[in-house]
Amino acid sequence: MLAPLSLLYGLGVWVRNKMFDWGQKKSTSFEDIVPVICVGNLAVGGTGKTPHTEYLVNLLHRNGYGPIAVLSRGYKRHSKGYHVAMPRDGKDSDGKVTAALIGDEPYQLYRKFPFLIVAVDANRVHGINELLKLPTTPQVIILDDAMQHRYVKPGLTICLSSYHRIMYKDMLLPAGRLREPMSNVSRAEMVIVTKCPKALRSEEETEILANIPTRLDQPVLYSAYRYGRLVNLNTLEECDIDHSTDVLIVAGIADPKVMADYVHTHYRLLDIISFGDHHHFSDKDIETIKARLDGVNGKENVSDGSGRQAVIITTEKDAARLVHHPAVNDELRQRIYYLPTEVYFLKNHAEKFDKIVLDYVRKPRAGVVKGSNLTIGK
Predict the structure, then answer these.
(1) 3-state secondary structure at position 244
(2) Can you say how many angstroms the Cα of residue 72 is from the centroid of all Cα atoms in its chain?
């Protein structure tokens, strides 16, 4: 029933993209000054942009690049305009930078990487210009979820597609989740199929390569998730809990399936409370979560008679919204844990990915002239 609306939506997207292709809308390149890497996708949410951005940050930092900046729109933040969170000493937030100010995913990056510049601006051209005016300018700028923001022309675009909802099995909005036609994958330098099973069958790889319309010079790589040790929301330290512990999952992400499968395998999963992607938890939501947690903590649900309390396991992104929530008291915070997510590549694809990225950033560039008040693209 929604297919006709998808056709109309697709026509609008086609016209907009052609206006950029024909120069009627302007794309600004910063290529002569600084490497700009875009991590994006064709679909709405759920492809793993933040874990892949973290992989990029680690790769660049490990190879001596810095400062590194990540520029995001700051989806569902409570602020407007340009905001920047500068590198700091120590792991914890100083309280001035919150998920409400810069958004949950940028705040997650800010907490995880003390050396990282994290900025938000819906106008990416303006955001990059502001970053280039900092006293110490970034050596590399990573654009989070900016494949559709064509006002900036990145030097390297990475297009992600989830294995569980791969682009060629999807449809345009509103009938499906695609923001633009699959053919527009041509704007990317590479495609990564994310959230793959650890053992991707050769027949599946053949099907993927046959159906994604890539060029010969456009590699298709495969990545998967692995989880780190649980982190307690109260102490923000890694820890372990007994595998027979009763667990309630609280997730405000597009696709909690991979996480739920992991928790079910390792702990005693009793229930899942699922919210929409980037959900802002209300006081009522917290009360609902508390009530459900108390419900799974009854004697009839304790598997070994030890009286062990049930706990909440949530995502790192949700933890960024819960850690400073006024309705989450110390007692509840002690019973909340989050699962850090890490990306790894299948086969030898890490080597291929790392080489493409490092070859790109190593290209000689003029850089910013110190003392200049550079503004590009106005």
Answers:
(1) coil
(2) 10
